[in-house]
Amino acid sequence: MKESGWRIALITTVPPVAAAMAPFLQQLGHDPVAVISARRRGPAPSGRLPMGDETAPPGVDVLLARDKWSVEPLLRACRPDLALCWGFPWRIPQSALEVPPLGSVNCHPALLPRHRGPIPLAWAFRDGDGQFGVTWHRMDADLDTGAILAQATVPMLDDDHGIDVVGPRMGAIALGLLPEVFKRIAAGDPGDPQPTEGITWAGHFGEEYATIDWSQPARQIHDQVRAWAFTFDLSPVTGPIALLDGRRVRLVQTSLTDPGGEAVRVICGDGQPVWIVESVPAD
Questions:
Q1: CB within 8 Å of 91: residues ≥ 6 apart
Q2: Burial of 3 by CB count in 10 Å (0-12 exposed, 13-18 middle, 19+ buried)?
Q3: 3-state secondary structure string, the chain?
Q4: Do the beta carbons of residue 254 and residue 274 sit within 8 Å?
């Protein structure tokens, strides 16, 4: 199979992903023909525009699927050689994944099989991994279980406190892997089966992780706050909640070094400080 000139459909709800992918694919000699996104069932998160006229890459059709069963007919209408998925909330039916002759490939922000599931970045903080991962893998009927085409690690920095900080760095690594991914696809390479050891599930947080315990080490508390920042308000409970000067607050951002300004310094269980950069009333 030739390695250029492919018609590629992008499946994503994240405008920055589409904005970065489309020109990069064109530089590689491919034709990004459409972005298939998901129709929102509610308003977009504060400060984040949904996929649409204002956010779509120039010259690329935008198709909004009403549910996961709409993805297949929309893909058929695009006539893609390959589908690339990156940041999509629904498990796509197998019949849709089989529409492109070259298959469907997903970018998952973890070192699969570690942290399969909806919020892998959050679990990288929760588990104290010290790094993030990027995996391009073939898609199948299950979630994040397909054969691996390329992987890389991304350093985790102490001031990684939101997707706007981490996303561009991870995106650059992911895009840099695509030439290797395309070479394997062109050769008909099915990819490497995921190991059966080291499988973890990055599911939504519950009450057991929703409360800050100031007796814990400063870094563990800092990572807990950052983990919640990467749940993208998808978890069924609200966190992390802390008692601060007798008030219940939700911690939004912390720092392990003094950021100056009005940040509140708290000594943690290991005798080390953490600074509360931003918090809001919990109630």
A1: 68, 143
A2: middle
A3: CCCCCCEEEEECCCHHHHHHHHHHHHHCCCEEEEEEEECCCCCCCCCCCCCCCCCCCCCCEEEEECCHHHHHHHHHHHCCCEEEECCCCCCCCHHHHCCCCCCEEEEECCCCCCCECCCHHHHHHHCCCCEEEEEEEECCCCCCCCCEEEEEEEECCCCCCCHHHHHHHHHHHHHHHHHHHHHHHHCCCCCECCCCCCCCECCCCCHHHCECCCCCCHHHHHHHHHHHHCCCCCCCCCCCEEEECCEEEEEEEEECCCCCCCCEEEECCCCCEEEEEEEEECC
A4: yes
| pLDDT exceeds cutoff 60 at 45 | no
| Residue numbers of the domain that contains 220 | 207-281
Amino acid identity for residue 14 in this structure: V
The pLDDT tens digits for 123-180 are 999 999 999 999 999 999 899 999 999 999 999 999 999 999 999 999 999 999 999 9
Structural domain includes residue 221:
yes
Give the domain CATH number at 247. 3.10.25.10
Q: What are 53-83's pLDDT values in tens digits?
A: 788 898 899 999 999 999 999 999 999 999 9
CA–CA separation, 19 vs 58, rounded Å?
9
Within a domain: residue 56? yes
Whether 152 and 250 share a structural domain: no
